[in-house]
Automatic annotation (TrEMBL):
Belongs to the Rht family. This is LysE family translocator. InterPro entries: LeuE-type. Keywords: Cell membrane, Membrane, Transmembrane, Transmembrane helix.
Length: 202
């Protein structure tokens, strides 16, 4: 893995997106262990996009307007659903000092779906990973898999860090319901805005 790939990937992973917002929301609402589940889920959601890039299926999304539109609008609906889940009572960011009934598996599954239902991720990998292939690689598939795996590891580490920071702020938030209400509105607005942005994208 080159230094250029590492730095570029780090910048991409650090940029706030749906996965980052979801992990932060879970960390604030459910605590550090739950944020770990969210981070793992978001990382696993990268696998289909990485595989699509490696086997060339991402090109289908690029050339098939119908396939892209179907996945895109499923993603839009899911982001709006996430926004609603944040603001409703007992939703994603409902802070409770007691143990939550939401299983870690469900939290991870939601994180996975957030990335799976984002067609831009497949196109990103198609455009991003080949740039860092060595000249005349003996096996391009293996080299792409290595780069994708490195990207996923970086994603997991960064998201765990985001979740830890959110969890550290959890005690402060629990003692101040008005602050949490404001944060919930901000996160819900962010998910809604991302949904609109995805809906308007080409």
């Amino acid at each position: 893995m080159s230094l250029e790939f590492f730095l570029t990937s780090l910048i991409v992973v650090l940029l706030p997106g749906t996965g980052v917002i979801y992990t932060l929301a879970i960390g604030l609402g459910r605590g550090f262990r739950a944020s770990l589940a969210a981070a793992v889920g978001c990382t696993l959601g990268i696998v289909p996009a990485a595989l699509a890039c490696i086997v060339g299926l991402a090109a289908v999304l690029h050339t098939s307007a119908l396939a892209f539109q179907i996945i895109k609008y499923l993603g839009v609906l899911y982001l709006f659903y996430m926004a609603w889940g944040i603001v409703k009572d007992g939703g994603t960011m409902e802070v409770n000092a007691e143990k939550s009934n939401t299983s870690y598996q469900k939290i991870a599954l939601t994180g996975t779906l957030i990335n799976v239902l984002n067609p831009k991720l497949s196109l990103f990998f198609l455009a991003f990973l080949p740039q860092f292939l060595p000249a005349n690689p003996a096996n391009a598939g293996i080299e792409l898999a290595k780069l994708a795996l490195a990207f996923m590891v970086m994603t997991l580490v960064v998201f765990v860090g985001y979740g830890a920071c959110a969890a550290l702020a959890r005690d402060y938030v629990i003692r101040r319901p008005s602050v949490m209400a404001w944060i919930k509105r901000c996160f819900a607005t962010a998910f809604g805005a991302l949904g609109v942005k995805l809906a308007l994208s080409d």
